[in-house]
Amino acid sequence: MKLFQKDSEKIIWDQVRPNPTTPVFSNRASNGYRKLMMYLMVFVCVTYLVYTLKLLNTSNLACGEHELIFSTRNSLENLTLSPEIVEPEKTELKHVVFGIAASAKLWERRKNYIKLWWKKDAEMRGIVWLDNPVETQPDDGLPPVKISGNTSHFAYKNKQGHRSAIRISRIISETLRLGMDNVRWFVMGDDDTVFITENLIRVLNKYDHNQFYYIGSLSESHLQNIFFSYSMAYGGGGFAISYPLAKALETMQDRCIQRYPGLYGSDDRMQACMAELGVPLTKEVGFHQYDVYGNLFGLLAAHPVTPLVSLHHLDVVEPIFPNVTRVKALQRLMLPMKLDSAGLIQQSICYDSSKGWTVSVSWGFAIQIFRGILSPREVEMPSRTFLNWYRRADYTAYAFNTRPVARNPCQKPFVFYMTSVRLNSTTNMTISQYARHRVPHPTCKWHMHDPSNLDKVFVYKRPDPQLWDRSPRRNCCRVLESKRKRLVVDVGLCDEGEISEVVK
Ligand SMILES: *[C@@H]1O[C@H](CO)[C@@H](O)[C@H](O)[C@H]1NC(C)=O
Ligand SMILES: *[C@@H]1O[C@H](CO)[C@@H](O)[C@H](O)[C@H]1NC(C)=O
Ligand SMILES: *[C@@H]1O[C@H](CO)[C@@H](O)[C@H](O)[C@H]1NC(C)=O
Ligand SMILES: *[C@@H]1O[C@H](CO)[C@@H](O)[C@H](O)[C@H]1NC(C)=O
Ligand SMILES: *[C@@H]1O[C@H](CO)[C@@H](O)[C@H](O)[C@H]1NC(C)=O
C-alpha cells in the first residue's frame, strides 16, 4: 500500500513539475511512467482477449454475463496503478517543515514566542534562519538555527525597507535545499509568530499537497493591502507553500528576486515570484498578521468561523490577557489549546432571557455580557478595541467591518477573561472559568438587571476535534444557570432547529 502510494505520488508529481530538475529524480519518475505504460498495455491486451473470447462464445449476452466481464475488468484494473484504491495518508505535523525568520539582535526576547508553540519531542521539523550566530543550548526547546546564505550580491533599492528582506524571502528555497524527506508543506513564520499547529494541520488537510498551493492571509489594514498587495500572504501571519511549488520556486527565485530590487519586504518579493509562477494566494483567514496597535480583544473575541492558525505582532499589541506579561498571557491561551484546539477562541452567541442580556463566549479566551439584546450580526463583528497601523481609530482603515465598542454607554460590555480550564474525565467536558475584568463602567440609567454583580462565568464544553470536518458553523451556547454572582453556560453543537435567539 505504502509503496503503491509513493509511486502514484511520484507520477502526479511528475505531471505538475514545470521542468526537469535533478537527473536522479527524473530517471526514477520516467521509470515509473514506463511501468505505468506497460501495465496499461497489458491491461488493454487482456481486456481485448477477454472480450473477443466472450463474443466468440456467446452471440447473445445476458445481464449476468455483462457483470462478469465487468468484474474481470475490475480485478485487472487492480493490477495497474489505479489511484482510487490508494487511501491518501492525511497530512500530519511530521509532513511540515517550518522556516522561521529571525535576527540575532532580537533573538533573546523573541525566542520565547517560539518556545510557546515549538514541540521538540513531537515530530516537528524546522529551522530558525538568522543573520548572525547566537548562543544556543542543546536543551533549550527550540528548533535548530542556521545562518542564511550571503545575499550581498542581490540589489536592494527600497529606501524605507531593509535588505534583510532578501535573506528572509529565500528561506523556503534554502530550507528546501537541505533535502529533508517526506515533506508536503513548508510553512514560513517570523520569530514573533505563534502557531496553533493542530489547526494549521487542519487547514492544510483541505488541500492536495501534490499541487501548487500558496496559502495565507492578508493584512487587517486596508492601506497596507493597497500599498503591498491584496494578493499577498503577509509573512508575519505565516504562510504555507506546497512541496512541488517550493521546488518550482527554488529553481527560479534568485533570478526572480533580481527583477524586483525596489520592493520593500520579503513577503512582497515572494508574491512577485508567485505571480511569475502564476499561482494565486489561497486565502485562509485563520492566519493573522495583526497589523494593528492597542488591544487585540475585539478581533480575538469575534474571530471568523475558521480555525485559529497563527498570531503575530505580539510585541506590538498589548498582552492578550490583562495584567500579565505577553509571554505569560500566551502561555495561558495554550491551556485551552491543549484541551480543544479546534474550538480555541471560537465565538458562540446566546441570551440570558431571565436578565435580558446578550452573552458572547470566545471559548478559552473571554466572555462578554451586554445589557439588552444585540443581534448576532452585530456581535460577530469585531469591536474596535485596537488602533490601525497608523495609530488611529479609523473605521475605514480595515478590509472588513468593525463596530464601536459600545453604541450606548449602557451597552459597554462586561468582560470576563479566562483564568483556568480543566477536563472532567468522567463527563468528558471541559470546564473553563472566566473572571470579571474590573474596569470602571459609565453610569447606566436603564431599569434592568446589572451584570456588575457577576464575579465569574463557568463554561462547559465537550472537546470537538472534528469541528472543522463539518461545514463552518458557530457553536451554540445556552445559559444553564444565572445567579447574582455567577453565570453557567454550555457551549456545543447546535441542536436541530436551534439558533441564536432569545428563548422565552
Ligand atoms: C488487488 O485487490 C485485492 C483485493 O482488494 C488485493 O488483495 C490484492 O493485493 C490487489 N492486488 C494488487 C496487485 O494490489
Ligand atoms: C558576502 O559576500 C561579499 C562579496 O560578495 C563579501 O564581501 C562579504 O564579506 C560576504 N559576507 C559574509 C558574511 O560572508
Ligand atoms: C495585577 O496583578 C497584581 C500582581 O499579580 C495584583 O496585585 C493586581 O491586583 C492586579 N491588578 C488587576 C487590575 O487585576
Ligand atoms: C466530574 O463530573 C461528575 C459528574 O457531573 C462530578 O460528579 C465530578 O465531581 C466531576 N469531577 C470533577 C473533578 O470535577
Ligand atoms: C469519555 O471519553 C473516553 C475516551 O474518549 C470514552 O472512553 C468514554 O466513554 C467517554 N465517556 C463519556 C461519558 O462520554
UniProtKB/TrEMBL annotation:
Keywords: Membrane, Transmembrane, Transmembrane helix. It comes from the Eukaryota. GO terms for molecular function: acetylglucosaminyltransferase activity. The chain crosses the membrane at residues 36-53. InterPro entries: DUF604. It holds the Pfam family DUF604. This is Fringe-related protein. It comes from Helianthus annuus. The lineage of its organism: Eukaryota, Viridiplantae, Streptophyta, Embryophyta, Tracheophyta.
